[in-house]
Design a protein that fits this description.
The complex is a heterodimer. Chain A is of the alpha+beta class. Chain A has helices at 44-52, 94-104, 109-122, 138-150, 168-185, 196-202, 220-225, 230-235, and strands at residues 4-15, 18-29, 33-37, 59-64, 67-68, 79-82, 156-160, 188-193, 205-210, 213-218, 240-248, 251-254, 257-260, 270-276, 282-284, 291-300, 305-311, 314-320, 329-333, 340-343. In chain A, helix 2 packs across helix 3, helix 2 packs parallel to helix 4 and helix 3 (109-122) crosses helix 4. Chain B has two domains: 1-41, no CATH class; 59-265, MetI-like (MetI-like fold), CATH 1.10.3720. The longest helix of chain B has 34 residues, at 51-84. Chain B starts with 7 loop residues before the first helix and ends in a 10-residue tail after the last helix. The chains are: A alpha+beta, B mainly alpha.
């Protein structure tokens, strides 16, 4: 048996003629933290719901530990879900919410009490057993939702934008907590989010999706440093995406200048997309720059300044800890390692 | 408060049409007209304790109770079907369901009369097959039928409105945690719909226990429920005092049942009428 716990093979999903998913194939390993990332409507939630069993694919196969579970109803699957808006049972207190799954499975009261108390302790909600869920804050409700899923000791936990409703500070804390929990419990997490920073922080593997199709699968570092196409580059962090021409191996022309690069194999005089991260553009004195331009605006972002420079007819986004004043003339340098060349995406 | 004067018409309205009549009913119920003028008495209430009247009271409550129960058993699945059907179908269904209510109550009940009569539609059809005419009218069942028919929407609509507000992801959460359809219903859907059930019961039980049109038309002249008893005191006998006393007792009974029901209508366990 492979170490893949879940495999999606050529999954497609139609809703009344509109395609929500197109030919999605994905392998999820045991104990992996996989994030489905993309803008709203990209099919990430649909993918999650297909794994949970709330939707059935129009085409394709879902394997769980190598077995086809296409027709298995949700209540028989060994996965549990943390819903976007928690979906807690408002007619039960915290203890009964968490105990729900165990009661269905007919555990005896002593075991239920023990397991529920354990998991509530784990999510820092000891002492909240008798509280009604309506009286809890968003963060606490979210913990109840996680506890309610985890108490069943699922092999796979599905999380549908679980932190979307929380404020920034709480969200950051919960990101770290969730990640630690996942490592400690050794559970496979499949996590849906539209927040690229969240995805980069938490994941072992990121699956970038768009219009129902997978754009790229890779580790956070791979996705960030080597985006496969302009969409991924643009979605993951800010980027300067420029039309360029690959003159030959290791030489690319864009913004009216020829740059050395580390890419090859595109052929000669091929049109390409060039991606340069804002932090990879180095500002120097005008006479030292590969290209010359003028600073149009400066915004203080906390750790760095975000500057927009105009050079050779292109607006460049530049991140730097050193500030260059507005209207100052500067030189811009981009070094070979910081240039990412991608094939042009054929317009759809 | 500056805007208080806006409420004045309503307060005047309530005083004229609610408070004063109530006080009058109460006044009549505890007084009697004698040669010496009007004197205080509780004899009307004592009269109500006589077996013949107690029997009527009991019968009214029993019939109302049974019709409420039948409405619940018939209405709950109906409400579920309404709540779960998709939008286009739902509007048609709700329309079909509510349309009869646009007709006059009396008219609807008369319609049943012509259906159930000895020479009515049902018996005519049966006679084609050589079945002797049945006594469909003027018995408990006919009255029950009339009540259920008339009051069913009042059971379905509150349950439907609560059910349609239940978050679908809560149902999915229950399935996700291992509950099959039956468990989802008993452990999640039904408990969450209890406020609707409670107001449905109140809205059916109250008119059912006091109705006098249905028993008079479908139950016949000798079929007496508490509503008929009250009506007769005012219209035929002219004993306003006794009629008022029965009304007061009815009101107290209804208040008690409402009090019990309102405990379930509030969504949290802590709140409620007697909270």
């Amino acid at each position: 048996m492979s170490e893949n716990i879940i495999e999606l093979i050529n999954i497609s999903k139609d809703y009344d003629g509109t395609e929500a998913l197109r030919n999605v194939s994905l392998s999820i390993k045991k104990n992996e933290f996989v994030t489905l990332l993309g803008p709203s409507g990209c099919g990430k939630t649909t993918t999650l719901r297909i794994i949970a069993g709330f939707e059935s694919p129009t085409e394709g196969t879902i394997l769980f530990e190598g077995e086809n579970i296409n027709s298995l109803p949700p209540y028989k699957r060994k996965v549990n879900t943390v819903f976007q808006r928690y979906a807690l049972f408002t007619h039960m207190n915290v203890f009964e919410n968490v105990a729900f799954g165990l009661r269905i499975k007919k555990y005896d009261n002593k075991t239920i009490k023990e397991k529920v108390n354990n998991v509530l302790h784990m999510v820092n909600l000891s002492g909240f057993e008798k509280r009604s869920v309506d009286s809890l804050s968003g963060g606490q409700q979210q913990r109840v939702a996680i506890a309610r899923a985890l108490v069943n000791e699922p092999q796979v936990l599905l999380l549908d934008e679980p932190l979307a409703a929380l404020d920034l500070k709480l969200r950051k804390e919960m990101q770290i907590e969730l990640k630690q929990m996942q490592k400690r419990l050794g559970i496979t997490f499949v996590y849906v989010t539209h927040d690229q920073e969240e995805a980069l922080t938490m994941s072992d593997t990121i699956v970038v999706m768009r219009d129902g199709a997978i754009q790229q699968i890779g580790t956070p570092v791979e996705i960030y440093n080597e985006p496969k196409n302009a969409f991924v580059a643009d979605f993951i962090g800010e980027s300067n995406i420029i039309d360029g021409v690959m003159l030959r191996d290791y030489l690319v022309r864009f913004a009216g200048h020829e740059f050395e690069c580390v890419d090859k194999g595109f052929g000669e005089n091929t049109e390409v997309d060039v991606v340069v991260r804002p932090e990879d553009i180095k500002i120097t004195r005008e006479e030292d720059g590969m290209i010359k331009g003028i600073i149009k605006s400066v915004t203080f972002k906390g750790v760095h300044y975000e500057m927009i420079a105009e050079a050779n007819g292109i607006q460049w986004i530049i991140h730097s800890t050193a500030m260059s004043p507005v209207n100052s003339r500067v030189g811009l340098n981009i070094y070979p390692n910081d240039i990412q060349i991608m094939k042009k995406v054929v317009a759809e | 408060m500056k805007t208080r004067w806006i409420a004045t018409p309503y307060i005047v309205w309530m005083i004229i049409f609610t408070v004063v009549p109530l006080l009058l009913v109460f006044f009549f119920s505890v007084t009697v007209q004698t040669d010496d003028g009007i004197v205080f008495t509780l004899e009307h209430f004592k009269k109500l304790m006589e077996p013949i009247y107690l029997k009527v009271l009991l019968r009214s409550i029993l019939l109302a109770f049974v019709s409420t129960l039948v409405c619940l058993v018939l209405g709950y699945p109906m409400a579920m079907i309404l709540a779960s059907s998709d939008l286009k179908r739902k509007n048609v269904l709700v329309f079909l369901f509510v349309a009869p209510m646009w007709m006059n109550f009396l008219l609807r009940t008369y319609a049943w009369l012509t259906l159930l009569e000895k020479n009515g539609l049902i018996n005519s059809v049966l006679s084609i097959f050589g079945i002797k005419p049945l006594n469909l009218l003027y018995n408990n069942l006919a009255v029950l039928l009339g009540m259920v028919y008339n009051f069913l929407p009042f059971m379905v609509l509150p349950i439907y409105s609560v059910l349609s507000k239940v978050d679908k992801s809560v149902i999915e959460a229950a399935q996700d945690l291992g509950a099959n359809n039956f468990k989802v219903f008993t452990k999640v859907t039904f408990p969450l719909s209890l406020p609707g059930v409670a107001s449905g019961i109140t809205m059916v039980f109250m008119p059912a226990v006091t109705t006098f049109v249905v028993p008079r038309l479908l139950g016949g002249a000798q079929f007496t429920l508490i509503g008929n008893l009250i009506e007769r005191q005012f219209v035929l006998v002219g004993d306003w005092n006794f009629g008022s006393a029965i009304s007061i007792v009815m009101m107290i009974l209804i208040l008690i049942s409402m009090g019990i029901m309102s405990r379930y209508e509030t969504e949290s366990v802590e709140g409620g009428f007697f909270g």
